[in-house]
Amino acid sequence: MAGGRLLEGLLAMYEASVGILTDSGTSALRLALSAAADAGRLPVAMPAYSCYDLATAAIGADVPVLLYDLDPLTLEPDEASLTQALEAGARTLVVAHLFGRPGPVDRLLLRCRDEDVLLI
Predict the structure, then answer these.
(1) In 2-120, which ranges are E strands?
(2) Which domain holds residue 41?
(3) Dihedral over alpha carbons 28, 73, 86, 48 (to 10 degrees)
(4) Contact assessment for residue 54 and residue 29, using Cβ atoms and an 8 Å cutoff
């Protein structure tokens, strides 16, 4: 029952109504990508440079992927490359936080809302 208390605590902490405990981030991403596919939010835009677990999750969810480049100085999505992926039809955007550098989630969340793209 410890998992139940953990989930309850996490739901309260993040003010969420639903949650799923998984064994890894890869499993969590696979579930999120499967949910995106079920919602018709394909293809998925993912960074071309990241941990191989992103590709593992995409393969596990059996989703089509469009790759976008990163700025080598900031490790944030390269604006032109990201725009190209979105213009090619990406309906879901995966952002990876690399080497302790958080991605520009606030800025990307606004853009995704404007363009009706799911942000993971």
Answers:
(1) 44-47, 65-68, 92-93, 118-119
(2) 24-119
(3) -50
(4) yes
Rounded (10°) CA dihedral 45, 16, 23, 39: -40
Rounded Cα distance, 68 and 95, in Å: 10
What order do you get walking across the sheet with 92-93 strand by strand?
65-68, 44-47, 92-93, 118-119
Q: How many domains does the chain have?
A: 1
Position 38 in a domain: yes
Extract the runs of DSSP E, i.e. beta strands, from 22-61: 44-47
What is the value of pTM for the model shown? 0.89
Reported as a single tens digit per residue, the pLDDT across 42-85 is 999 999 999 999 999 999 999 999 999 999 999 999 999 999 99
- 3-state DSSP call for residue 82? helix
Burial of 29 (0-12, 13-18, 19+ CB in 10 A): buried
What is the distance between the alpha carbons of residues 87 and 79, in angstroms, rounded to a whole number? 12
